[in-house]
Write a structure and sequence with these properties.
Radius of gyration: 23 Å
Number of strands: 19
CATH class of the domain at 71-318 and 345-379 and 390-396: Mainly Beta
Shape: globular
Helix content: 10-25%
Order of helices and strands: HHEEHEHHHEEEEEEEEEEEEEEEHEHHH
Strand content: 15-25%
CATH architecture of the domain at 71-318 and 345-379 and 390-396: Beta Barrel
Distance between the termini: 23 Å
CATH topology of the domain at 71-318 and 345-379 and 390-396: Porin
Length: 439
């Protein structure tokens, strides 16, 4: 058995506990499927102005999906939950779902801002902006992250952003991913369990959010909870892929009774609502203190409710005059779902306060799975990491590493091998009447 097999037997539970504990993190150098030639800085981590630098691109650009017959694979899956179906690697992006969850932390400064604010309504504004920012990286991300193996883990510490995070795949059927992040100076704890249900509806794939997210602001003795909106990828079979998020997100401050209700709007017939988010913050007596609006792909603003309503009324009058003589467009189409024309700018109501603005993506993002700078760095193996990380860490998965390096055939073989090994491990546990316990 080579080192790579030993690692993945440990991950999937085929070996005994003794063999798992005997796996040495240092032994994985031979098992890694990546080119370390770009990391020969005598073991040092590059820095810029005293801040650790992270890579800004992947080792290889993404492959073309144009040669793949998607319909031949998906026509048997209509109405089924995709987490129970083995999908070809053409659908993937080179990150595990555990790493995708980590992207919630890209705008951690919003949590730090909430911790510093004395007023509970202002804190709720910052938390609401963070909740929207946490799903902003989904924009144009049409690749599916790899399903984590049971027992797979991911760790990340970002001193420059002031947090550390650990996550683990704690269940395979149903697939449940748990994460725990905390401030390096003890200001907050952010944790939750995510169980995404994916369904294929003919022309689109819908991800139904399952699981509750909790943010604790320790200095204020406050706990906020919410669930994410639905996410839908259109034109899986034909046409240009595009994403929308929709549904109502309720953020509750369980200490004060304050609540923020955010409506992620579906695009609608004319596409005017695409990417829009609109909501309000109310206290425990249900008095509305402010309206929050914007786009999850761009920015979020806050304004007094009365000023917002006045602006909306005047805007509605103008729209009625404009569309008075327009003919409605047909809604049904047997071909592709045409992506509505996106108006990149949010119409800012005078007197509004900016809560959050998205960071621009790197110029080469479109050739790198539409990753943000933050996402580009999540699978990076920095010098010295091999000796510190658990052997179950996502960064050691050979299928993800091969895909990142542009070796698609190798990635596909490794993905199939690991999935088969996981199935064998589950059968073995079932035969021995063993229950999986998190490590």
């Amino acid at each position: 058995m080579n080192n790579e097999d030993e690692f993945y037997d440990a991950v999937t539970g085929l070996d005994s506990d003794e063999s798992y504990e005997g796996v040495s993190e240092a032994s994985f150098k031979d098992a890694l499927v990546f080119d370390g030639s770009s990391q020969k800085d005598n073991g040092s981590v590059p820095q810029e102005n005293g801040i650790k630098k992270h890579r800004k691109s992947l080792p290889a650009p993404m492959f073309s999906r144009n040669t793949m017959s998607v319909w031949s694979i998906l026509k048997k899956c209509i109405g089924l939950e995709l987490s129970k179906i083995t999908m070809p690697i053409v659908f993937n992006e080179p990150l595990s779902f555990l790493q995708r969850i980590t992207e919630y932390m890209e705008h951690t400064y919003l949590i730090n801002r909430a911790c510093s604010l004395p007023d509970s309504i202002e804190r709720m504004q910052a938390v609401a902006a963070f909740a929207v920012s946490a799903v902003a990286s989904q924009w144009d991300r049409t690749g599916k992250p790899f399903n984590p193996l049971l027992g797979e883990t991911y760790e990340l510490t970002r001193e420059e952003q002031g947090f550390r995070l650990v996550s683990e795949q704690v269940s395979h059927h149903p697939p449940v991913s748990a994460f725990h992040a905390e401030s390096l100076v003890g200001d907050f704890v952010f944790h939750g369990s995510i169980y995404p249900k994916l369904k294929f509806w003919g022309k689109s794939v819908e991800a139904e959010p399952k699981g509750t997210i909790t943010l604790e602001l320790l200095k204020h003795n406050e706990a906020y909870t919410w669930s994410n909106p639905y996410c839908c990828v259109h034109n899986i079979i034909l046409g240009k892929l595009w994403i929308e998020q929709y549904g109502t997100v309720e953020i509750v401050n369980h200490s004060t009774g304050d609540k923020c209700v955010l409506n992620f709007k579906p695009c609608g017939m004319f596409g005017k609502e695409l990417h829009k988010v609109e909501g309000y913050i109310q206290d425990k007596s249900k008095k509305k203190h402010c309206v929050i609006y914007g786009k999850w792909t761009e920015c979020m603003w806050s304004i007094d409710p009365q000023a917002y309503e006045t602006h909306k009324k005047s805007e509605k009058k103008g729209d009625n005059k404009k569309h008075k003589h327009e003919e409605p467009e047909g809604a049904d189409n047997d071909d592709a779902d045409d992506m509505p024309e996106v108006q990149e700018t949010v119409c800012v109501v005078p007197g509004s306060t900016l809560l959050w603005r998205i960071d621009s993506r790197p110029a080469h993002s479109a050739t790198m799975y539409n990753f943000t700078n933050f996402a580009m760095s999540l699978n990076e193996l920095e010098p010295g990491m091999e000796a510190m990380l658990a052997p179950t860490d996502c960064r050691f998965r050979p299928d993800i590493r091969a895909m990142e390096n542009g070796k698609m055939d190798e990635a596909s073989r490794e993905k199939e091998r690991l999935e088969e090994k996981q199935r064998a491990a589950r059968k073995e546990r079932s035969r021995n009447e063993e229950e999986w316990s998190t490590r």
